[in-house]
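Supplementary Note 3. Input sequence used for the single-chain structure prediction.
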Amino acid sequence: MRIACLQFSPRLGNIARNLERAETVISRAEPQDIDLLILPEMAFTGYNFNSVNEINCHLEPTAAGPSTVWARSTARRLGCYVALGYPEYCAHSPSLPLGPVSRYNSAVLVSPKGDVLANYRKHFLFATDELWAEEGPEGFFSGDLPDGLGRLAMGICMDLNPRRFETPFEKYEFAHHILDSKADIAVMPMAWLTSQPAESVVDQAQIPDADTLAYWIQRLQPVLDQGGQGQSGETIFAACNRTGTERNACYAGTSAVVGVSKGNVKVYGRLGRGTEDLLVCDVPGPGKNSAAEWR
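The predicted structure, written as discrete structure tokens, is reproduced below.
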């Protein structure tokens, strides 16, 4: 199976520029025979909005805005599944207790034919999300990919952490979701911050943020302890992060595709903290490619 992560640096609120930048990175990479393409959290709007009023004009209707239009077009063009994050508004009947509109930090999953397969709403919110979004009520996502590509679990960024950083660290909510759903693949669009100085994104752009990657793997500890529950005994974890800075936020980049089995972690590929590039990894499992190597 061939997985691609599109890491780039969106500019806050500049959707047209961000769409163009994503296309530039893909065109430069000239990917072939991808099975699954993943983009970051809120890939085309940017992430660091300060209020409902500020983000309102960038909210997209459920699986129907510019992000989903791009995902459907790209999925058909490349013949692959596409997962990406976007800010969603969902209209309700005014008579419902939820009120006329709900806002979510969401991710859409599209098939190679351009059909929307899932719309996942971020379950655990980061402090920035809480300024405008509601917690997704349905829990983490899991579902079978058609074409025999296996079972997929999906979360968004903060979902990998303890809920609100308040639940015990060792509860490992998303890792247990991977196990409980017997996922072959766990996909996570991200806007993950770095703890390193902002200058490192430029000065060490080609070098992955080792602390960030180690933490992501640490949050998969139950999978490492018990082994993957999918078809192969290995769960593939694909984290597509963004890079760059927004206001006072600096992002860690380091998008990675990792295989986790009992007692073993294999990094199939990762990007630097400051690079804009398409990471393409061949991993074991069903799909058009099955060689365990990456490029």
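Helices lie at 15-29, 52-55, 66-78, 173-180, 200-203, 210-218, 221-226. The chain is about 20% helix and 30% strand.
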